[in-house]
Design a protein that fits this description.
Structural class: alpha+beta
CATH superfamily: Gcn5-related N-acetyltransferase (GNAT)
Shape: globular
Oligomer: single chain
CATH topology: Aminopeptidase
Helix content: 10-25%
Strand content: 35-45%
Number of helices: 4
Radius of gyration: 16 Å
Amino acid sequence: MIKIELLSDTNFCIESLDLYNRKQDVNKVYRRIDGDFSLVECKYTEDWDLNKKRSVAKQISSDDHITYIALENDKVVGFIGLLKQLNGPYMILDMMQVSSECRGQGIGRRLFEAGKDEARKNGAKALYISACSSEETIAFYRAMGSKLASDPIKEIAEEEPFDLQMICPVRD
């Protein structure tokens, strides 16, 4: 059974992502064409080596983040990292991942709901997401109620020019 827990010193360490499977085969991505977003073919594989996994583990366990992890038999199979500091009305969803062998089981939905609850508790009106433009990633965020941001955060959009800037309201 998969548990969703707030990351802490007792359930997470720098090596906790060493066996994490980040692999994602991407076939199509969204690109802005003539002012609208369209799906275009763009095949690549996203994966993390050990150095990247350790870097991410350090990042999501830092004091700047509030992170929830999905655990299966004490192994991390997913996480959502939120920046503690609000940016205007937004809590920034800094990173969200579900291990490739665990996708399609509702873990991402549970993590995303934990992120929305956390944003609500911290007074945010919405989660702000700089989302990888892959077809699957955008489909997930849309299914969670996210929409394209009408007024993107300039610094974030410039940092990841191919990402889609999205928001998801956390209040009814």
